[in-house]
Amino acid sequence: MRIRGLFLIAGVFLIYACASHQASKPTVTPPTEKGAETTATQQAVSAADAMVFLERVEDELLRLWSTAERAAWVRQTYITDDTAVIAAKAHEELMAYTAKVAAEATAFDKLDLSPSVRRRLKLLKLSLTLPSPPDAKQRSELAGLATELDNIYGRGKFCDEKLAKSWKRLAKAKALPKDNCLALGQLKLIIAKSRNYDDLLAAWKGWRTIAPPMRAKFERYVELGNAGARSLGFNDLGELWKSNYDMSPEAFEAEVDRLWSQVKPLYQDLHCYTRTRLQKTYGKKNVPDGKALPAHLLGNMWSQSWENIQSILLPERSAAIDLERTFAQKKIDEQEMVRYGERFFTSLGLTKLPETFWQRSMFVKPSDREVVCHASAWDVDYESDLRIKMCIRKNGEDFNTIHHELGHNYYQYYYRQQRPLFRNSANDGFHEGLGDTISLSVTPSYLVKLGLLNRAPTNDLNTLMERALGKIAFLPFGILIDKWRWDVFSGKITPANYNKAWWDLRTRYQGIAAPVERSEQDFDPGAKFHIPANVPYTRYFLAHILQFQFHRALCKISGHEGPLHKCSIYENKAAGERLKAMMEMGMSEPWPKALEALTGEKKMDASAILAYFKPLHDWLKKQNQGQQCGW
């Protein structure tokens, strides 16, 4: 996940994007060079005024963004009451200023402006994913709620002696955690590595005990967020979010559904095969035919990725690639893992990371304090103060994640010459998609070139299955989180059925069910980082579509011949040049132009996913013959 152009403090993000909706025009202070105190209805504004206004606003936004970003960095790497207050204050100041100038920008709606100026004004008016209400007291309350929700998540622990002993065994730790209390990372390890049904269930249930205290706060956050969205001319916060894609909210929803329909058959066949293999491990009593899969058996706390159960699902019995063992044998530490990632980008002809990156990033979880371990990429000063924040584990999953996060950093670096309001990806799916595109080039042949693997596996099915368990398994999860929130924001889902609606969507899209009865005393959405952190999530679904489209285009540019899944653009300067050209555009043009600059295509298309996984899909269909698929 990237942090840039996204301001994260207590989970509040800023995104610069276009929309077809315009805010209703208020009485405003005309944005003249001297800031004269005359209303827009009393003095006409001109195109020249718009330019002066934008110059002034962008200068101030750069200062506020950087201040807020630094406060957010400290907040996430030193979780204390004091850093929470500091970050909340910085966030509140930023929200107040952004809301003020977003309203002022409507004064120029009817002017004849250049496309660039018009676009910058639109981006400004939609620059908050959590716009503050006009009322100062409510604005302060919203900032505080955001911080409180983030605090609850960041400090979440579950204390259980039996589970703590299981963690100690699986982690090969020398001692039990203090008071037998397990943080998210420790509970995730149990979900990932244990095959004991009861331990998996206890860890799954245990993490979700942190979320009920969020419920009332989240309900109020929705009320205040919607008030802020309405002040900008939107019906609710969900409508604002859906307007960030150079199309109407209705068209965007239809586009998401269209893309999902392209990939749904592949997911359904993977789901059917997974059920059959889980039955062999846990029995049909625990994994019955024709039913949704129990959420705790898929190797991931949220069932969004099934990579950790690949030992159950791989087509062949040949050993999976074990980078954890390789890193240990070669004494490769966390920072050297990141150096490998940097060398991937420099092999494409791109620049080295600034020296400050190595001095200021967080690569390892500190032992003396609480931090937010969720991996993220930052450009703290919106120029060259690039960083990543990770609690790196020395394994293959985090090696891939490093390549992904550095993809964000390089995108941030190359669009830094754009106007401040254009310093972002073409749409938010592009940022995540580019990071994952790089991860697709972390192929067995690439690992062989690095000396991390002696030889590439001869079995393509295993390689494709490993990818599918991360990429294809994720797709329905990638759309249901925001579908839930869009309906919450619109009022279609009420507080009285938050949890029921959550599980209805998870079953409908993922074919996954809670392993034990859930009620409205629970708040299971809050157990997923992006809900209390206010991070729009559809970007990740779009990223999973775009990354394969990007990958196909870059492989073609690089001259690759053969199956798409075997391609790595490592060391290909031509691919690097095309990538650089798209990154340098930032958000200065609507996303179809950026897509065309990289791929030659103007429409998002999931056919590249189907091409990439075709050998696996053909195999899955054969395996599923005679099985009771669906749920």
Please tell me about this protein's structure.
The chain is mainly α and 631 residues long. Among the domains are: 2-131, no CATH class; 323-349 and 396-470 and 540-623, no CATH class. It contains 25 helices and 7 strands. The strands form 3 sheets. Strands 1-5-6 form a 3-stranded mixed sheet. It is globular and about 75 Å long. 51% of the residues are buried.
Distance between the termini: 32 Å
Q: How many helices in DSSP terms? A: 25
- Alpha-beta content class: mainly alpha
Give start-end ranges of low-pLDDT stretches: 3-42
Report the principal-axis shape. globular
Largest sheet: 3 strands, mixed
The strands making up the biggest β-sheet line up spatially as 1-5-6
What share of the residues does DSSP label as strand, in percent?
under 5%
Write down how many β-strands occur, each being a DSSP E stretch of 2 or more residues.
Answer: 7
The pLDDT mean sits at 90
Helix content: 40-55%
For the CA atoms, what is the radius of gyration? 24 Å
List its traits.
631 residues; mainly alpha; 3-stranded mixed beta sheet; two-stranded antiparallel sheet; 7 strands; globular
Provide a short characterization of the protein structure.
By secondary structure, the protein is mainly alpha-helical.
Layout of helices and strands:
Layout: E1 2-3, H1 47-77, H2 81-104, H3 115-125, H4 136-154, E2 157-159, H5 161-171, E3 181-183, H6 184-193, H7 197-207, H8 215-231, H9 237-242, H10 249-282, E4 293-294, H11 310-313, H12 323-329, H13 334-347, H14 355-360, E5 376-379, E6 386-389, H15 396-414, H16 428-440, H17 444-450, H18 460-471, H19 475-490, H20 498-510, E7 512-513, H21 538-557, H22 573-585, H23 591-599, H24 607-612, H25 614-623
Parallel strand pairs: 1-5, 4-7
Antiparallel strand pairs: 2-3, 5-6
Helix pairs in contact: 1-2, 2-4, 4-8, 5-6, 6-7, 10-25, 13-15, 15-16, 15-22, 16-21, 19-20, 19-21, 22-23
